[in-house]
Amino acid sequence: MKELWKLSALEINNKYKKKEMSPIELIKAIIRRVEEINNKLNAYVYFEKKQILKSTNKSAKRWARKEPLSILDGVPISIKDLILVKGMPTLRGSNSTNAKELSQIDAPVVESLKKAGAIILGKTSTPEFGHKGTTQNLRHGTTLNPWKLSLNPGGSSGGSAAAVASGMGPISIGTDGGGSVRIPCSFSGLFGLKPTFGSIPAFPISPFGTIANIGPISRSVKDAAILMNVISKPNIRDWYSLPNNCNDYMEYLLRKNIKFKIAYSKDWGMANYLGNNKIDKDILKITKNVVNTLTDKGFKIEKVNINWPNEPSKMFKIMWASGAANLFKKLSNKQKKSLDPIFNKFCEEGHK
Fold this sequence. Notes:
The chain is an alpha/beta fold. Helices cover 38% and strands 12% of the residues. Strands 1-3-2-6-8-7 form a 6-stranded mixed beta sheet, with helices on both faces. It has a two-stranded antiparallel sheet with strand order 4-5.
């Protein structure tokens, strides 16, 4: 029998429906898992058992009455520590924040999860204000990759990826501007998605503006699909949020006759700008194998050439650093002095 902490969100739901397991049994297994390995991985920066068990008891009662709120009722999920969760601190990986200051509201994505009955496990680590593609900060230290402790899980949603990959919860919510969901998922053997901007509402908006999205982190595409069905709904607090398109993401997976038209680019139009940093041969080989597999399964793969008018990384860095500089302006002198020198320098670049 598979250990409970290894179960996917979909498997958890199936076991609840068949009365093979209760939310309390599962959560106790997850709590034990966190207590055993989080001190090695440093994935969670906030984890409060009393809050978790209170939510779990409510879910167990709903399942006992055969009245679950959704497919995610009783499913544990972690939240990247850039996103507001009522009653929890939002430390953002920074010494400039106050651990005693608890959030008074839930972000829209957390609000949707709670309405669906999901169990919020806690907050996962991020580099300071999510500004880079690895996960370490002066406040909490370095997060490690569960597959090999000498390596980093990537970032900036590295805490979420480390938690999901190691069985400290089956799914998580991350944020992605320049790869902050996709990088750690690729480093940790997970499925990650940066959805179309506005698909998942955000509040407050990221300091990095319209570059940053909220996205799911999971061990399978199906888990991401059921998560997207819950969190991709418009919210009045985010004027960028898209209207409800009534998509059922699971339907796309279940309908075998759907053959998507897929665009493929080997280097995303970056070949002329890579210099000596050429794409690794193994990456090219794996990508080619994926293209061949999808083609064999009947998908139409169209190779596209992207011709950027200017180097895209320069444009991205200008927007990213400008957002950091705007964030920096809002901090007190005392807060500014507590920042990581590397992030401080990053903010300075945005003022130029």
